[in-house]
Amino acid sequence: MLEACIFATALCGFFGIFLKKNLVMKIISMDIMSTGVIAYYVLVASRDGLFTPIAGKANTGAYSDPVPQAVILTAIVIGLSIQALMLVGVMKLAKDNPTLETKTIEENNTP
Amino acid sequence: MIYTTIVWMALPFFLGFAIYLLPQLDRLLALAMVLTSGIYAGQILSGGSSFNLQLLDHFGVTLTIDQLSGFFILTNALVTGAVLLYCWGSEKTSFFYMQAIILHGSVNATFICADFISLYVALEVISIAAFLLIAYPRTDRSIWVGLRYLFVSNTAMLFYLVGAVLVYQAHHSFNFAGLRGSPPEAVALIFLGLLVKGGIFVSGLWLPLTHSESETPVSAMLSGVVVKAGIFPLVRCALMLEEIDPIVRIFGVGTALLGICCAIPEQDTKRTLAFSTVSQLGFILAAPTVAGFYALTHGLVKSALFLIAGVLPSRNFQQLQHQPIKNSISIALVIASFSISGFPLLSGFGAKVLTSKNYLPWQVIVMNLAALGTAICFAKFIFLPSQKIWEKGKLRSDLWAAMMILLGGLIAANGFYYQAYTLQNIIKPLTTIALGWVVYLFIVKKWVIKLPRGVEEFDHLIGMMAVMLIIIFWMVRV
Question: Is residue B455 a part of any domain in this protein?
């Protein structure tokens, strides 16, 4: 069930990327897609257990897997920086294309 | 060797930031880095050593360095070096050199890593650095082209991430070898990411616009080495797991044919070169065992061609027919075109022979057709009119320094496979080239066909990913 929800999120984001017409909306859709992917990593990590994997006295045994979480942290940071970069690009484009319609930007800027 | 590798891998990132702090030394530092890479690659290739590096546990970073990576690293060093020399006298700021050297470093990283997550990080750094280089002129067009590139590659990498976690779920390790025994959807998702990143087949249709609308040195770098960052992991996987091998070969054949079909009717020089890149990548994938050598020759020749195309008086072939180019430039152009068509004496010949020896029976006919197509396509460059033009004072010494490296490398690379020079091997490419020229002179030259560019629209590029995903999934399943 949880898995289905996560995939639905990722798919919604993916469809948003090419169905939405506004450039900012496309970027937000991409963010939604990456949220789905991140959530999937967290889900995979929690397959074996839900406890935070910190060594301590209370040994419950059912720890969640720290590796996917550590890995996805990198991906989150990268995703964040890419989005920041894209938004800067969009800001520059917005000067000459205030509506930010992808179709018009594309027509103006392809030979 | 282990410490050398780690220091060498981290050096470009340190130097990149050092360049930003010491802008006076930008070009020297960048060149020093490229020399280091060249020496490192030379050491790997001459020693013939291959070794694995496992940092941390089975889920940590894995590096594999062997002959194959040696060839790719050498390509990277030569192309980046040539591009740096080409920009030497230009007014590029240190920001440009910083990005170029970070791009160089991250491309190197993809050539040695052997697990999916280090590969992911390296590929994303490539996206960012390439975006900044494409958008360097700060015009609306360059920003849009860069944005489109970043968007496409980031979306592909999100699919790739899902694939990577599926591999982890199956094996508790991100190693490439984990692809065996992973569910088919994992293979499909990872392949989709790599195919898009490498510009293969229909998922690579973002490539022509990006490579043709960037500045000359940037397109040389993108076409020469950056796309190979997506190709290399595919080749590595195909070599490690024999069940992946046929899929990679099929995509190689498909993209070789598709690229060349689009390149022949194209009227724009840079777009022709970009489509030819799509097709040449197919040759690399079609025979994974000898991919390294082909990648080396293609990287050298394609960056040389892009640098020359940048100094031609026009980008349109029709106009170039009436506008003679300088003799000296024309000679360089002809040498490069000969090499890519597989003419003996240049290493493009050796690479073509070596690759054709490693085809499977079903590939032979199609790949020969693609080689014929390449000959037709580059006849367009070879038959451009030239004449003696004396220009005072305007000697492009930067261009010639870059050409020395690239074309000199093409001739020197013959040494890697001098066994190719037998009579039988020489006759075949010569007939192919002759046939290609005949077809060009009598048919293609008179054509005026405009291919529709609708499929290169942004929305279609993204939508195509979904289609490709289904196709690959179906292929892996069968």
Answer: no
